[in-house]
Write a structure and sequence with these properties.
The protein has helices at 2-13, 16-25, 40-49, 59-67, 71-76, 92-103, 106-115, 131-140, 150-159, 164-175, 196-199, 255-268, 281-292, 325-329, 408-420, 427-439; strands at residues 232-240, 271-277, 299-307, 310-311, 314-316, 322-324, 345-350, 363-365, 387-391, 400-402, 406-407, 453-456. By secondary structure, the protein is α/β, with parallel strands linked by helices. It has a 6-stranded mixed sheet with strand order 2-1-3-7-9-12, with helices on one face. The protein has a 3-stranded antiparallel sheet with strand order 4-5-6.
Length: 477
């Protein structure tokens, strides 16, 4: 009786809109039979009947109230969030649709109904019909489902394009869900595509589980996505070194093409691009130091592109002195730049990491003379969280540059960003495609190859929002 009294008091504190929202969130829990729910007591009674609200574990109630942002009731009635191992009964899909409805204004809701005028019954589109009710009706008419968001995406594109980000992020999270059985070492480094054995799939792609393992655990540790909802996407710094003081370090013909492509692509992605040409070693450190002292609170992430000659773990300034790559990233770590804490810090390094290759007619190596000794002990892999170091080549090897069309790595990076960001792919998956593209290229004189490499301490997927403007035109690679 005491617990029923608690539920009664909670119900009395809920508005009609609150009750409708709770019923929507519980739609799958109650076997899609919530349209007849008229009150909080009615909803709670159904949950009690199906043993979803046991008095000793009222965790679902707490989660429901927190989802509809009634934290005041959680605090007032001293409700528990539950044990760490408690699995959510509310599907991520329901929470996603609820969040979409909350983000849309009344005017937006009316626009959604107008666009559905020829697909839903008119009585389901009346002025007093909530957007959650519209979503339910769309599901009933097979216009909306967890794996069918096309109609919703088309509508949102017309009504409120900025919310396409939520759809993109939800899709990415669904793709990157994984089981709690543990990841095998054969799992893809893209963090979005796991091997068949790890996911428990049979040869036909059907889900299988070990005896005693419940299916609800498959999404209990879905990989998250970094937020991309700030006022600005962030700053993209491009350091482009062309003219060097040391005669053995030849001018990097074609690097201007790389600079222009990177500038066009990252502007298209919403970044404020800043280009720093021909930087000395001291200037490179100064540029990154100044970047780390800025306030990034209104930004989602930061990008740094370095185009230069290099050695393993180091890049050259135009004064022919080298800078440790780890020293370039240090000003941006969470300790030195707190406003970038928990935000992606993305580095793209176009430089050799080893011995220089002989020049061809149009292709040169971004590297140093063989007589210059590289120090393989210098570490270039970031230790701090939320860093991505994307290198044009693996340690000890050269990278190649076309003097008319730019470098293999940068041109492939720009091409794949333009092609794959609109498809909702995460950045590491895109870079895996870059790896594949570059690995297939061959220098004309002999079997000279190149293999890019990514070093990541990212904790989530990086999914750039799909730009609303047309994609930039890039030179053919």
């Amino acid at each position: 009786m005491e617990f029923h009294g608690l539920l009664f008091q909670v119900g009395m504190a809920l508005s009609t809109d609150n009750v409708n929202a709770l019923a929507f969130l519980c739609n799958e829990i109650l076997n899609r039979n919530t349209e007849s729910v008229r009150s909080a007591n009615d909803l709670f009674s159904r949950l009690l009947e199906q043993d979803h609200l046991p008095h000793e574990r009222p965790y679902l109630l707490t989660e429901l109230l927190r989802t509809i942002q009634r934290n005041d009731l959680v605090k007032k009635f001293n409700l528990s969030d539950g044990e760490p191992t408690t699995t959510s009964l509310i599907s991520p899909y329901r929470k996603f649709l609820y969040k979409m409805a909350e983000e849309l204004t009344e005017e937006d809701s009316n626009s959604v109904k107008f666009l559905l005028n020829d697909k839903l019954p008119k009585r389901k589109l009346e002025e007093n019909t909530s957007l959650l009710e519209v979503f339910l009706r769309m599901e009933q008419m097979d216009l909306l489902a967890e794996d069918n968001l096309e109609e919703l995406e088309k509508i949102i594109q017309h009504v409120c394009p900025r919310l396409r980000l939520h759809i993109t992020q939800f899709k990415a999270q669904q793709e990157s869900s994984f089981t709690t059985l543990g990841l095998s070492t054969e799992a893809s480094s893209s963090a979005g595509y796991l091997c068949r054995d790890t996911l428990g799939l049979d040869s036909q792609g059907n889900r299988t589980f070990p005896e005693g393992h419940h299916q609800t655990s498959t999404k209990s540790r879905a990989l998250g996505t970094y937020s991309m909802t700030q006022a600005k996407r962030g700053i993209c710094v491009i350091i482009n070194n062309f003219l060097f003081s040391l005669p053995s370090l030849k001018n990097r013909e074609g690097t201007k093409v790389d600079e222009q492509c990177l500038s066009d692509v990252f502007k298209w992605l919403g970044f404020d691009v800043e280009v720093h040409p021909d930087c000395t070693s001291e200037k490179m450190l100064s540029v990154l130091g100044e970047l780390g002292r800025r306030d990034h609170r209104q930004m989602d992430c930061v990008v740094c592109c370095v185009l230069s000659h290099g050695l393993e773990g180091r890049v050259y300034g135009v004064d022919s002195h080298t800078v440790e790559i780890r020293d370039l990233k240090e000003p941006l770590n969470a300790l030195n730049c707190p406003t970038l804490a928990e935000k992606p810090k993305l580095f793209f390094i176009q430089a050799c990491q080893g011995k220089k290759e002989q020049n061809a007619v149009y292709i040169e190596a971004d590297g140093n003379e063989p007589s210059l000794v590289c120090d393989a002990r210098k570490e270039s892999i970031p230790a701090e969280a939320d860093f991505l170091m994307s290198m044009a080549t693996v340690p000890s090897f050269a990278s190649f540059r076309d003097t008319k069309r730019g470098t293999w790595f940068i041109q492939s990076l720009c091409k794949n960003l333009v092609e794959l960001v609109p498809r909702g792919l995460d950045l590491l998956s895109i870079l895996t495609k870059v790896n594949d593209d570059v690995s297939l290229q061959t220098k004309h004189e002999g079997e000279k190859k190149q293999m890019p490499q990514q070093a990541s301490t990212l904790r989530k997927n990086v999914v750039f929002p799909v730009p609303e403007t047309p994609s930039p035109r890039l030179p053919s690679v």
